[in-house]
Fold:
Amino acid sequence: MAQNPRTPGTALVTGASSGIGASVAALLARRGYRVFGTSRDPDRAPAIAGVEFVALDLLDPASIEACVARVGDVDVLVNNAGESQSGPFEELPMDAVERLFQANVFGAVRLTQLVLPGMRARGFGRVVMVGSMLGSFPLAYRSSYVAAKAALRGFATAARREVSPYGVRITTVEPGSIATGIGTRRTHYRADGSTYTREYDTMIEHLDANERGGISPDKVARTVLKAIEADKPRQLYAVGSNAPVVFALQRLVPRELVEKITARKHGL
Ligand SMILES: NC(=O)c1ccc[n+]([C@@H]2O[C@H](COP(=O)([O-])OP(=O)(O)OC[C@H]3O[C@@H](n4cnc5c(N)ncnc54)[C@H](OP(=O)(O)O)[C@@H]3O)[C@@H](O)[C@H]2O)c1
Structure:
């Protein structure tokens, strides 16, 4: 018998120590969910009312297994943790690209695989992948990040049909520019004396300014909650950066124009 989706159950929110994850964890706790939030260093995570912090390093497969063993059954999984990586495509070190995919894609995929059997057995589950609008609107000098977010959405969208007969819904939420301070935590890979320096610096300046002027993570949390509590969660939700207008435009105008507008928004 499927659990009533409106009955709060147990939620696991990855990367709950700051930004969007902290807002989602706090909102779910206020809604009455039992909430586990993750951090690589739970002792240093901020206190959030109703949120219990557990350790998770998505770069370490053993840590992913241990996290799931520690929290037990979960009804809601929000795969939010992630690294924001930038650099000219030509100069991205492959080990950095591999690390990004392990944290932003494979870690979330593995975590989801581990909670799915329980969700299926109980006849209810909600999985939300926190992607990025850049996954839908690729941007120069963000190729690894764009590709990782598009890959995460691909896993999520393809798996939807497999799990829906068991009461499990998988959704992707793509935030636009959100003021979380992530700009100060980005990883940058640009070679000394790079031929791309001028354009790269221009793009980053605009990216960080857009982020600082972005919407609050609390708004994203409300969209994540909608994705969790909808009777029929949509394949994709987007929030911030005028998402409704921008996605409508994408359906109406040639791809090359969308590509130009995305670049222009970042000073290119
Ligand atoms: N802010 C934006 O404008 C924006 C836009 C689109 C998409 N997003 C996406 O939204 C999500 C949250 O972003 P945010 O802005 O809230 O960033 P944030 O404040 O920097 O939070 C990132 C979280 O990820 C965790 N984390 C990082 N690397 C990890 C790893 N290897 N293993 C486990 N946890 C890890 C961090 O936790 P600890 O350091 O405590 O481990 C932190 O809580 C990310 O997936 C990001 O790509 C953000």
